[in-house]
Amino acid sequence: MSTSPNAPESQEHSQYEAASTPRWIMIVFAVVFVLIGWLLYSDYQSKQALQAELAKTNQRADLLNKQLEEANGRIAELKGLLDVTSEKIKLTQDEIDRAKVLAQTIRKEQKTSGEQLAAQIGQVKQRTEESATKLGEVSGGLAGAKTDIEATRKDLEATKGKLERSVGDMGVMSGLIAKNHDELEELKRRGERNIFEFDLRKSKTPSRVGPIQLMLTKVDVKKSKFNVEVIADDKRIPKENKTVNEPVQFYVRGARPPYEIVVFEVSKDRAVGYLSTPKESGQPRQ
């Protein structure tokens, strides 16, 4: 396996990949703007529906008021008619009593109608208050959604700022490396390289990690070092005394940039990290 002929080309290719703008960021911001637009449109539709409901309730109240005025007018007409009749015609006592009973009945009906009208007006007021409350809830929900979107954007920017580059053990500048699980998730979202996570245990049997196999042979927790053996292209490549967060690089057939192993956590007989491979690489033989 030769390294010197491919190293300059690998550096140039890695720098070109680092300079390109990841498409997922544009997609995330597009989704954010679409979500905000949808929320604004939903808020507008809710306001329009509430305003229509309020207009209907106002029309109902006006109709009830008009009916009350008509009833009062009829009562006044009956009273006037009774007064005129009493003056022109000598009524018997029985007729006067019947007129009084009729007047009492009319008053009772007027009272009942007034109570019903008051109840209906109370319902109209209650619906109006409920509509105002719903409008406030819609506005509050929109403000909360904007806050959540802004917090998500800040978290993405903070994680992005923590990612770093480093020179690998073969002297080749690596791409962005992750030093914990959160940063590893950010690398996956970028989509610049293939990412394969692993949790290796010290063993004499290799474990498959993506297109290759790895075997953890030694761990020095105090010095944060480890030994690992890479099996790819029908070859065994020992990597000894490697440090946590150090890009461990090796070449395989069909790939110009090197593969990279990064271990960001070690414990007794255990190493946790990931394998990073270029997107255009072929599948090495084991």
Structural commentary:
This protein folds into two domains: 26-161, Orthogonal Bundle (Helix Hairpins), CATH 1.10.287; 164-278, no CATH class. The radius of gyration is 41 Å and the shape is rod-shaped. It starts with 6 loop residues before the first helix and ends in an 8-residue tail after the last strand. The chain has helices at 7-19, 23-88, 93-162, 181-190, and strands spanning 164-167, 173-177, 193-201, 207-209, 212-220, 225-232, 235-243, 248-250, 259-267, 270-278. It is α+β, with helices and mostly antiparallel strands. A four-stranded antiparallel sheet has the order 3-10-9-8, covered by helices on one side. Strands 4-5-6-7 form a four-stranded antiparallel sheet, with no helix packed on it. Strands 1-2 form a two-stranded antiparallel ribbon. The chain is built from four helices and ten strands; from the N terminus they run H-H-H-E-E-H-E-E-E-E-E-E-E-E. Residues 1-5, 14-19 and 158-162 have low confidence and may be disordered.
